[in-house]
Design brief:
Elements (H helix, E strand, L loop, with lengths): L13 H4 L3 H4 L4 H11 L4 E5 L12 E5 L3 H5 L25 E5 L8 H11 L4 E6 L9 H4 L1 H10 L3 H8 L2 E6 L2 E2 L20 H5 L9 H17 L1 H6 L7 E2 L3 E7 L1
Parallel strand pairs: 1-2, 1-3, 3-4
Antiparallel strand pairs: 4-8, 5-8, 6-7
């Protein structure tokens, strides 16, 4: 895959997607807790595909890598400046980090095996990946309203078995429950707040929407709006509005040598 004009090395054009991205994709404290515990005593941490800095620990020495110029520009001033590089060619010597992490990033990589091999090469301790299990991603209500978008999502995320094989060593796959008022607005984060998905910014902050025709998005808006107004959505899914956590597709993969 070629880089987009903004420098993105992934399959999505973050020159467009990054507009307003940080307004909808803020790190969620509950999810961050899983990452913090998995990092353990690590003092130096590499963040690959760091984007605008979500989930970067503030109490550790972080080195961030982000190939998209648009996303690098959105990083807040209190975070380190990100290095312009890609996962499959990390410009660091062997074993120079205590731990490394990649959150909502591996599905963007053109070569999963090469990227994970590079993360393992430069990392002495655990390699953390926050991703979604494509085998489970179709279980949310979005599948009824935008099946094409969900199919795209499922097709882009690598299987957990593929990640485990590429990481090698000892690998733990940890289900991460999604809180009802999750501040990180990926699609499943709105499992109990469907009205939020009618906001253009919420959809724009999820790259899968950029891979489907505008007619799919228009149909989604029309269908969901109609069902919310008539009460059809609540009749079928209303219990989710009061469900404190959703056991969805979110997974934290922790690989150790």
């Amino acid at each position: 895959m070629q880089r987009h004009t903004d420098g993105s090395a992934g399959d999505a054009n973050y020159g467009i997607i990054s507009s307003g991205y940080t307004s909808y994709r803020q790190p969620d404290p509950a999810i961050a807790g899983f990452i913090d515990r998995a990092l353990g005593a690590a003092k130096t941490v590499l963040n690959v595909g760091a984007g605008a800095g979500s989930y970067e620990p503030l109490d550790r020495q972080v080195t961030a890598v982000e190939p998209s110029a648009s996303m690098r520009a959105q990083r807040p001033a209190h975070l380190v400046q990100a290095v312009d590089a890609v996962a499959q060619a990390l410009p660091f010597p062997d074993g120079c980090f205590d731990a490394s992490m990649a959150t909502f990033s591996v599905h963007q990589w053109p070569d999963l095996g090469a990227g994970l091999a590079e993360m393992r090469r430069v990392t002495r301790g655990p390699v953390l990946l926050l991703s979604c299990d494509p085998e489970v991603i179709k279980q949310c209500w979005h599948m009824e309203y935008a099946p094409e978008m969900i199919e795209v999502e499922a097709g882009r995320y690598p299987a957990m078995t593929a990640i485990e094989k590429a990481l090698g060593g000892s690998v733990q796959v940890i289900p991460v429950p999604i809180p009802l008022y999750c501040t990180d607005g990926f699609n499943e984060a709105y499992y109990g707040r469907p009205e939020r998905m009618l906001e253009p910014g919420a959809r724009l902050a999820n790259s899968a929407w950029s891979f489907v025709p505008p007619t799919v998005e228009s149909r989604f808006i029309e269908h969901l709006s109609r069902d919310l107004q008539s009460g059809a959505w609540d009749k079928k899914y209303g219990h989710l509005r009061h469900q404190p956590f959703f056991e969805g597709s979110l997974r934290l993969v922790v690989g150790r040598k």
